[in-house]
Amino acid sequence: MVTNSNLTIGMKHMNSQTTAFLADFDNYHTAVYFSDPQHQVELIGLGETSTLHHFTLAELTAWHAHQSVPVFGGLPFDQQLQPTSNLMNGIMIAPAYVINLASGEEWGTRPAPDYKQSPRTHPLHILNHTTETDWQARLQPVLHTLQTDPQKQKVVLGMQEHFDLDGQLSASQLIKTLIRQQPQTYHVAIKHGDELFGSATPERLVKLNQNQLETAAVAGSIARGQTDKADQKLAHELQRDAKNQREHQLVVTEIERRLQPWAQLDSVAAPEILTTPQIQHLYTPITGTIKQTASVWQIVQALHPTPALGGLPVDWALATIANVESQPRGLFAAPVGYVMPDGSGEFVIGIRSLWSKDHTVNLFAGAGILAASDLTAEEREIQLKTTAMENILKEQLDDERHDQ
Ligand SMILES: C=C(O[C@@H]1C=C(C(=O)O)C=C[C@H]1O)C(=O)O
């Protein structure tokens, strides 16, 4: 166990069973991985019996009623389409075989490998790397609106980085690197042909188990310190900072409001600190009991997008995101997770994430903008968040080099 300033989380290590399953992971056209920080589940899905793309909630619910294995995937952030992707506009996969390595439970039968990634004859290199250089300029009018219109409270705006590689990433190597570099987060990978979505997110959207519901507000951020003392000083600063506290409370209050029709919520304590190697966040766990029959899909729909990733008012925030961000988000900042045959399941927010298609990789990170925001500080915060995935990408290139 590792003790953060205020929060204790289980530390995951990769066991030999995980290694054995990952050895075959890249040999399937479709394969999925999901594990949580406490290691209550470590799910691997191989092959597919059915895959749903770009669906409505009604189509998803009807499709899910026919599945007898855990299903995995993501719902897109919003209605904007990513025209080149079979994965980013929403994907839900019923694998041919699923194993929960945390419990030993299995579903379906293990299919024969069905995919051959084009062999690489040389180590992977980055050929080209582009970042957004006009982000602050594009945000200036939004900041002005937030400062002059009291109805507009918050919008989370992100940027994407683009990499061209001289080969294709390996999904299994990516998962190993997620586990190694970000041991205290969720680890998610969805591989579908030449596309791969990976995330080391610290943020739960919803976990539903029988009638017990767990979610969390994660919003308000500050850097890590070089020493324990400096780290704690920064955590203290974050807890006392008026802008970050307001940013966080907006999320807590809105999550509570949206869950009101669905659940009886337990009382919520003051925010704690949640740390990843790059950044610390204000964090409030929110729990409750479902008071009427509800599916995970309904709760996801009620909650997403929370103001941790969208904003308030929500319609204005979504329109602003569509106008200001350079590209559709797809599964970036969107709900990704699994649902078990008994209806229990968990969705997390696909941040600290990458999307790879063929020889390209995109990373995403965003920050909550309020009237009191300093755009230079917000851009620095985005860079901190991006560092997590940049490091994962770079180590993966190194890893693959070692594997040659
Ligand atoms: C948008 C991101 O993170 C979200 C925004 C945060 C903030 O603005 O403080 C904190 C955590 C996340 O809810 C991201 O990591 O890309």
From TrEMBL:
Keywords: Isomerase. The keyword Isomerase applies. It is an enzyme of class 5 (isomerase). It catalyses: chorismate = isochorismate. Residues 133-385 form the Chorismate-utilising enzyme C-terminal domain. GO terms for molecular function: isochorismate synthase activity. Pfam families: Chorismate_bind (PF00425). Its EC number is 5.4.4.2. Belongs to the isochorismate synthase family. PANTHER family: ISOCHORISMATE SYNTHASE ENTC. NCBIfam families: isochor_syn. This is isochorismate synthase. It comes from Fructilactobacillus carniphilus.
